[in-house]
Specification:
The protein has three helices and nine strands; from the N terminus they run E-E-E-E-E-E-E-E-H-E-H-H. By secondary structure, the chain is an alpha+beta fold. The model has no long low-confidence stretch (mean pLDDT 93).
Length: 157
C-alpha cells in the first residue's frame, strides 16, 4: 500500500494562478513512492505512453491524449508498468474561489478525451512557455478560466 502525503501549492511561479510541470516521465523504475493530495485541482495530459491514475482508491487507465482530472482533496498517484510522459497543471484554490469555481462542489470526470480541452490546454502551454507573449499573464488567466468553464459545464458529474 502506498503512503500518502499532503502537498500545498498556493505559491505559484511568477504570480500565476497555476503551476505547470511539463514532460513528467515515469517508468516502472522511476515513479513516486507516495500518493499525495492537495486542495488544488490538478489536470494531467498524457503526451505519450500509457499508465494508470489512482484516484481515492480507484484505478483509471491513462493513455496518450487523455486528461486525468484530480479533484480537490483526492488522494492520487500516477504510475506505469512501461513508460509514460505527461504534463501537469495544478490550479490555485484561490483563483478558483475568486472566479466562482468552488472546488468542493465540483466532481469532474476522472478521465477525459476532449478536442476543446486539448485546444485550450495547448494554447495555455504555448503562452506559458513563450515569455515574450504580449499580455502573457492576462492571456494565461483567460485560458485557465476557459479551461475551468469547459470542465465545469461539460465534464462535471
Amino acid at each position: 500500500m502506498l503512503k500518502a502525503r499532503y502537498e500545498q501549492y498556493e505559491q505559484s511561479r511568477g504570480g500565476l494562478p497555476f503551476v505547470f510541470n511539463p514532460n513528467i516521465s515515469r517508468d516502472r523504475f522511476n515513479s513516486s513512492k507516495e500518493a499525495n493530495w492537495h486542495e488544488n485541482l490538478e489536470i494531467q495530459y498524457c503526451i505519450k505512453g500509457s499508465g494508470s491514475v489512482l484516484l481515492d482508491g480507484k484505478i483509471y487507465p491513462f493513455y496518450k491524449n487523455n486528461f486525468a482530472v484530480v479533484n480537490s482533496n483526492t488522494i492520487h498517484y500516477t504510475g506505469t508498468d512501461s513508460e509514460l510522459t505527461y504534463d501537469c497543471i495544478i490550479i490555485s484554490t484561490s483563483f478558483c474561489k475568486q472566479t466562482g469555481f468552488p472546488l468542493s462542489n465540483l466532481n469532474l470526470e476522472p478521465i477525459i478525451e476532449s478536442k476543446k480541452i486539448t485546444e485550450i490546454f495547448f494554447a495555455l502551454k504555448e503562452v506559458y512557455f513563450d515569455l515574450s507573449t504580449p499580455y502573457r499573464k492576462a492571456k494565461l488567466n483567460n485560458l485557465l478560466l476557459q479551461l475551468l468553464l469547459e470542465l465545469a459545464e461539460n465534464h462535471n458529474i
